[in-house]
Design a protein that fits this description.
Layout (H helix, E strand, L loop, with lengths): L9 H14 L9 E3 L6 E4 L4 E11 L11 H17 L4 E11 L5 H18 L2 E9 L5 E11 L14 E5 L4 H16 L13 H8 L5 H9 L6 E5 L3 H12 L2 E5 L7 H9 L4 H7 L5 E6 L4 H5 L4 E8 L5 E4 L5 E3 L9
Parallel strand pairs: 4-5, 9-12
Antiparallel strand pairs: 1-2, 2-3, 3-6, 4-6, 7-10, 7-11, 8-10, 9-11, 12-13
Helix pairs in contact: 2-3, 4-5, 4-8
Bound molecules: adenosine-5'-diphosphate and magnesium ion.
Length: 345
Amino acid sequence: MNTLSPRTEIATLGEFGLIDRLTHGITPRHDTTILGIGDDAAAIRHSADRLTLVTTDLLLEGVHFDLTYTPLKHLGYKTAVVNFSDIYAMNGRPTQLLVALGLSKRFAVEDIEAIYDGIRHACDVYGVDLVGGDTSASLTGLTLSATCIGDVPSDRIVRRDGAHDTDLICVSGDLGAAYMGLQLLEREKRVFRGESDFAPDFAGREYLLERQLRPEARRDIVESLASADLLPTAMIDISDGLASELLHIAARSHVGCRIYEDRLPIDYQTAVMAEEFNMNLATAALNGGDDHELLFTLPLSVYDRAERLPGVRIIGHITRPELGCILVGRDGGEVPLQAQGWQGR
Ligand code: ADP
Ligand code: MG
């Protein structure tokens, strides 16, 4: 490294600032590139009426997962599913998966087979073909990278940039459980570190652990939107926390938003755990990552049908951009919505 040239710490830009800086000014050369950087997946046109979707995700040991408490089979399943989730977020259907592995000597063949059991199972459940990848030795740790290909009819693609003033803001499932699951696993790890008969009691907390270790992608939501003949104006999957994802939709769509704390969907176990950890429940729901739920907007005119969607909650509405992005608290107080994503560890 040249000591005379300026050095900017990654943390000063954060993840999204870094991506912006790296990809600034990149414009598509091909008219087959319908959508490039900036959404949950890129969209490519290979036929008149369908678009191909592509997305990739990287999971690193010690950053995204800790093998002290992550079963390898679950890790494989999660690697596949988080990619499927980005395809569903475009209102698409995942069709093919490629998986690249970096393996240190610490892992035996049986370990990698366990990861692949999980990947295969996810492909069976979601109807996806594993079509390739890459395998390499790594000096330390385990690296998993997956690329998913999917497709969507051209007139059904849903991007992040289509939300309009007065649209309803909807979210599937419940929020914050995966984050509380992670807190629980980290606590047990600290308490029992070094003890060979490590047998933490997770009774009654299974849902939180499952949400963290073995998430699902919301294919069912994409299907129920289609069967209700509803097309969201914008959609994103919640991987970094609701607040961060909603701010992405707002920024891309050039709108503001208002969501209501008392409308946030939160599971009972999440609430109990937050209390035990003395954590603010709304913060866990807004900023806890790894939920893999879908956040989408629908026109106000379909309110009745939106309300009847199973497993979906209306949490607020889109506003004009000058009104900003606001969280309305239980007491009616208003605070600006803030993201607390990855900051370049
Ligand atoms: P997601 O959370 O949906 O996986 P990210 O937040 O990781 O999406 O990325 C946001 C956008 O930036 C995506 O369109 C992604 O393809 C793009 N992106 C992320 N990292 C890079 C990179 N290193 N080079 C080019 N594009 C990137
Ligand atoms: Mg995404």
